[in-house]
Design brief:
Elements lengths: L17 H73 L9 H11 L14 H8 L1 H7 L2 H23 L9 H10 L5 H8 L3 H8 L1 H26 L3 H12 L7 H4 L1 E7 L3 E7 L4 E12 L2 E18 L2 E6 L4 E5 L4 E2 L4 H21 L6 E9 L5 E9 L5 E10 L3
Antiparallel strand pairs: 1-2, 1-10, 2-3, 3-4, 4-5, 4-6, 4-7, 5-8, 8-9, 9-10
Helix pairs in contact: 1-2, 1-4, 1-9, 2-7, 5-9
Amino acid sequence: MNVKFRMPKFGSNMKGKGWLRELVMTFLGTTISIVLTFGTAQYLENRQKVANGRLMAMMVIHDMDNTIETLTKLADEHEKIGETALYLMEDLNRIDSVSVDTLAWVLDYIVARDNSPLTYRLDESTEKVFLSSQDSWKSINNATFIDEVQRFYVIRHELYDHINSSSRWKKPVGEDAFNEELKKDLLVNPPVLLRKFLVEDDVKFFINMAVDSKQELNTYAYLFKQISDRCKFTMGITDEELTTYIETRKHTGNDVKEDELIGSWIVVKTTEYDYILEYASDHTYQQTSIIHQASPLFNGCIDTKYITNGTWKLRADTLLMVRKPGVKFEMDDSNVTPKAGMEQKAKDFITETETSGKEFAKSQEVQGERPRHYAASIDPTGNKIELRWTEPDANGNEVKQAHYLTKKKD
């Protein structure tokens, strides 16, 4: 703060009431200066509080809209997969005419893969921020909005508590029952498992209730949509403003420069899978995917490597990658040791893995060039890159995706 005080001009040349006038003017000047300085600071502080409150409101509304999207997608999944499961359940002979991927999808629908009591998990991060920030409530200064938000969070908890505890929502095949089948044959496949499970009463009940489950989820999604719309209306928040807020949150870092991109980047590195991208200065790239295939049949892993090539180009914040046709396949089983009594099965497994890999690689020879556009940004250290894109899901809805690349150390 920089307040300039007006000093009085007291001297021998001041006569009569001149000194009094000078004293009053000095007092007024000083007082007005202080009022203006503190008033401006308070005004700016109040504006910031209002802005913070509005950001908090948009964050909460975004949380509502995310919940609506989650419930809607879950409802669609119950309908689609429920119809497929019902189709198979009504005639088990149909199992032979359905792809293995679809059978695995149905199997995953009815089998609980772990013993956790929470099948449907709730992200409470935004809720906790909102409920713990009393200052934000004061900044929002809208009782209707606050009431609607609290109502939303109460109802959402009730819904998740219900679907995580209700026997109607519980997956009918427990982890223990599933593991019992694996103990009989480690290579048991989805068709065999579905022929067993689809005749059980609990499974039939769960599949037959898929339509009701969908309706229940859509009912809550509609209720939350009403609450979200009411919150937007009472706060005067437009869809365009909310979209801008969401995009601002998603776009972090700076635009990537060509010299920053050139080099090797780790996309994924786990005990099961490695995914590496190498960008060259001549605007070509190489993508290497390594799968570390483990099995109960042997110790160690089979390493299957798939290598693709292409070209790249940067335009502002957009990275264009064009993959060329063809895939190079390599396999290394030198670290594999069959378990006792499993020698032949392990050998068959390795042979099948190699055959499938070669067939996949051959199928890619006839594929045309595949261009992909990514929104690219880099963090201040230059060691992390975010690549964002959208792609349609099984229902044709655009879903946002992202890769996070880490600079590979020399």
